[in-house]
Design goal:
Strand content: over 45%
Helix content: under 10%
Strand order of the largest sheet: 1-2-3-4
Shape: globular
Number of strands: 23
């Protein structure tokens, strides 16, 4: 379900049977201090400080510290307003100040401050989040937070508390789409793909104009983006790989 490579070069693999580490020779199961696994690992994030953040299906948010080789787990705690929201974690992103954004299915969006150990909640009812089912997250090079939910794509500019819909307002093409992947290309453009197969391109370095790209055929849901070769974006779909130029 998830892959990440940390600063030491280790590959981390999130599976339905827990978290694995690959060192180039062997796979090793990563366990908590009590000797138990982490269940279904849905999201991974290799942070700038070398730690690995782990989002799980039902075991909360975990952190692997490469120095101590220990895993710390944060879980939802009923009655605590500053604890992790309940719900499956499907997306993680690191802010410029080191805070971690946590996207859940049903629990909305959380911002975790590692220094204080507290979670700040953002919900549809209170913070204007389009939907409490968050599927994809990205903090781009300008510090803009991009949120892919079951009700389209939105963004939150640095210093703002408002989530702005992108092609996702009433009657717009992504309003009822599930955004599954968001990516920043080398030229600063933002790419977003949906479970229904839509592909959006936002020209943030230029005029910020958002557009849906034409689809050459029905090749399935968008699962991933990568700059596999210079000047190209490879779009991973359920039906194969689609290769596009940087301008779409």
């Amino acid at each position: 379900a998830a892959l990440a490579q940390d600063q030491a070069g280790f590959f981390w693999i999130g599976t339905g049977a827990g978290l694995m580490r690959y060192d180039g020779y062997n796979f090793r199961v990563q366990l908590r201090a009590d000797g138990q696994g982490l269940g279904f690992v849905r999201a991974l994030l290799a942070a700038r400080d070398g730690r690995l953040w782990i989002g799980t299906e039902s075991d909360g948010l975990a952190i692997h510290d490469p120095g101590s080789e220990q895993i710390t787990v944060y879980r939802s705690e009923p009655g605590r307003s500053d604890a992790l929201a309940a719900g499956t974690i499907r997306a993680l992103a690191e802010d410029r100040d080191g805070a971690i954004w946590v996207g859940t299915i049903g629990g909305g969006l959380d911002r975790f401050d590692p220094a204080s150990g507290r979670f700040q909640h953002h919900r549809r009812a209170t913070e204007g989040l389009p939907d409490d089912r968050v599927q994809a997250l990205l903090v781009d090079s300008r510090g803009v937070l991009w949120v892919g939910s079951w009700k389209g794509l939105s963004r939150r500019l640095p210093g703002s508390r408002v989530f702005e819909p992108v092609l996702s307002g009433p009657g717009e093409p992504l309003a009822e789409r599930i955004i599954t992947s968001i990516y920043e290309a080398e030229d600063g453009r933002i790419w977003a793909g949906s479970q229904q197969g839509d592909l959006a391109l936002i020209d943030m370095p230029g005029d910020g104009r958002a557009q849906l790209l034409p689809r050459p055929g029905d090749h399935g849901s968008v699962a991933a983006f990568v700059a596999a070769t210079a000047g190209e974006i490879w779009v991973g779909r359920t039906g194969g790989i689609e290769v596009r130029a940087l301008d779409g």
